[in-house]
């Protein structure tokens, strides 16, 4: 409902302001509609896997309780112990004189009528699917089987009983003559569909007549939790009927009783319209959209606990709250339940959808914006004081064997600019004091700082002169002057060595043609030399590559075809636009026209 009495007292300017206030809902709703359309083909999660939907489906299942009343079964004698099983046939193929093979998972035991004895021994409780699921072909095959062996004096093993549930191993004693009957859940579902108060959380009591037929329980299937009955091995006479009391209610009926909305009384509602009233009330939620400083509101009603923005059924009022708070956080929601209705008050969050203010004529795509991501944990930098905090002084006599060993084991030397230099390896021709240290076979590289000539200690300088250093990329020996110079050789790049390593890496591919390997090598070498580092460099790089290698590309059709396929792949990944691709093709066409002219 709208607050019409307040709207009537508003001036025209205030009414216009109120309409603008309500129009603020449009942008968030439009955004959620776009997200919902995109999620149709690529959903972020499966709706049926949500916990609140699983719980809602479980609460819709039907709990049935089976018992026998002594007042309606006065003629039945020696029917206890009575086993009650929830079964499903394994196949529709049956042999003559045999029942279908039924598979069961749980067995309940009844030892007396409901008027006598403990409740655990007089009732059997099972959970079956909801009425909608029972109408399917697989669920309608469920059957409740009753087996009575009391007439031949079977003894119940109390050690294999837990309450009224019986372990499957104890059923092996049932082999032989017995009487059995069956209740089909499809017939039970048809009876429950007529009870309109079942969905309102009330209990429905039914009475079903079951014909108990004498038969022979085959023992060979009991070990696999299966059973079948043979009628050829016993006398067909001696059948009798049992009046079975069946009590049914929804599994979540107790939770429904806790809600004020479910305590609504239908006593004054005529029976002719009672089903329609219950259907309309079940799952109905009222949404009140607040606007104009929460002084006015507009109302919308959804069914089946559906979201008003994306129309997703949430199964329950609790599930609707989880969905709204997690998927539509641009709004503020207030949930309240009364005996008359379930309602949600909706209002816009402050500054949740503020308009960006840009100067006139400024393209927002060129506007600088701030971005702050959640920083990952970084390793704490160790200061120079902390490095040497746990270092203890140790005196070494000059010229000793320990002195030579320390000089050869000094793998990393400090340098001013912080870049790494190659580890020192011992030259065999410069072994110190007869040391038998062998030179390392593999060159190792690491981060280090090199001491300048002015800061280096004469002793350290003497030790460095005894070691052989190598360039980090070229792996060539370094002269002593290069070691002590301030020139940084760590970031040097030898193009020949880099091209060699790139070719060697590409040769490892066996499912790539020779021309494709050549094109990949040409592109890798080009982007390395031109320092193509970002996605925004790709359009320029493609044009420059076409100009640089155009003559070579037009002379090799396979190479030219691979280059055009590569540009198409860049275009598919939104790294290259159509205009740049056209410019590259014009450049290549120019080379083709120039090459074909002299011919």
Summarize, please.
The protein has 599 residues and is α+β, with helices and mostly antiparallel strands. It has helices spanning 4-8, 12-23, 26-41, 51-60, 131-134, 185-193, 253-257, 274-281, 317-327, 384-387, 401-409, 458-465, 480-484, 495-506, 514-530, 538-555, 557-572, 578-596; strands at residues 62-68, 82-89, 102-110, 124-128, 143-148, 161-162, 165-166, 176-184, 204-217, 226-227, 229-230, 240-250, 285-291, 296-302, 331-337, 342-348, 425-426, 467-468. The chain contains 18 helices and 18 strands.
Labels describing this entry:
single chain, 599 residues, 18 helices, 18 strands, disordered N terminus
Approximately what portion of the residues adopt beta-strand conformation? 15-25%
Count of DSSP helices?
18
The overall strand count is 18
Name the average pLDDT: 76
Helix/strand structural class: alpha+beta
Shape: elongated
Distance between the termini: 86 Å
Q: Rg to the nearest angstrom?
A: 43 Å
Residue runs with pLDDT of under 50 for 5 or more positions: 1-5, 152-156, 390-398, 400-455
Helix content: 25-40%
Q: Summarize the biggest pleated sheet.
A: 12 strands, antiparallel
